[in-house]
Amino acid sequence: MNTTMKRHLSSEILPSGLPPVASPDDEAPAVAANGRRIGEVILDLQNISLSFGGVKALTDISFDVREHEIRAIIGPNGAGKSSMINVINGVYHPQKGRILYRGQPRAGMHPSAIARQGIARTFQNIALFKGMTVLDNIMTGRNTKMRSGLLSNAMWWGAARNEEIEHRRKVEQVIDFLEIQHIRKTPVGRLPYGLQKRVELARALAAEPHMLLLDEPMAGMNVEEKQDMCRFILDVNDQFGTTIVLIEHDMGVVMDISDRVVVLDYGKKIGDGTPEEVMGNEDVIKAYLGTSH
Ligand SMILES: Nc1ncnc2c1ncn2[C@@H]1O[C@H](COP(=O)(O)OP(=O)(O)OP(=O)(O)O)[C@@H](O)[C@H]1O
Ligand SMILES: [Mg+2]
């Protein structure tokens, strides 16, 4: 990927449609290395520890995510990256530590409640309904937005019908945005891997998230597919102001599109800063030289 892929964002903070929130630490908004202003801290992870039986997946990890930024999580295999995403969206509950989302402590919250707070995700191993069409899979991303249940469907069929039309309209917007009109009626299982990854992104976007958690969205893709995916991630961040937490192994991608990077190794945080800062960090270099990455 060349440097033209790098973002060229305005210095304005993008409108998120949300009321302004005070940073838990009352920190001033930061300015990213590329000159773009990013917002205040919206997700604050404090001293997170998570273990599975004897396996310590995460040990005393603290970092934050600021509104509108692209925050990468990197590290060798088994470092705890996916576990961290699973903690953020409530699949795993850490034994120790505190999570603040928009300044509010969040303990023991169910993934569906977290999704309703505006956090959507994609999975390291694609989690789509392979026998269903692209359109129907993306429609499942609207679940958190659906108000009418069976009873209201029966009583207020007009309202439910309007709601359905609105959901379909949003889904079609996402389909246009990600340029997948040509496959909208294709069963997902028949698509090549790279397109399935894009459909998974589409399903997450259909929820109109404020924060998007992407677990290796480019794994297994060729160079051209990676460039497309980078462009879509930058466009989502740019046009919708979506905050993005991204797990990625490709250092070129990380350097090109992320504002800040947190580095994990054996469940511990070994680096945190701009891409340039972490790439110059001795511990990070050692962790990477000691592995196949
Ligand atoms: N559900 C689980 N049960 C038991 N151990 C788990 C579970 N999930 C993760 N682990 C362990 O926690 C550690 C961190 O795993 P995790 O999947 O978070 O790493 P990762 O950084 O995402 O790795 P990769 O780059 O291979 O995806 C590993 O030792 C893993 O085996
Ligand atoms: Mg993983």
From TrEMBL:
CDD domains on file: ABC_Mj1267_LivG_branched
Record flagged with keyword Protein biosynthesis: no
Lineage of origin: Bacteria, Pseudomonadati, Pseudomonadota, Betaproteobacteria, Burkholderiales
GO molecular function: ATP binding; ATP hydrolysis activity
Alphabetical list of InterPro entries matching this protein: AAA+_ATPase, ABC_AA/LPS_Transport, ABC_transporter-like_ATP-bd, BCA_ABC_TP_C, P-loop_NTPase
Pfam families found in the cross-reference section: ABC_tran (PF00005), BCA_ABC_TP_C (PF12399)
Keyword RNA-binding among record annotations: no
Domain ABC transporter: 43-291
A single cellular component GO annotation: plasma membrane
Keyword set, alphabetical order: ATP-binding, Cell membrane, Membrane, Nucleotide-binding, Transport
Region (Disordered): 1-28
Protein name (database record): ABC-type amino acid transport system protein, ATPase component protein
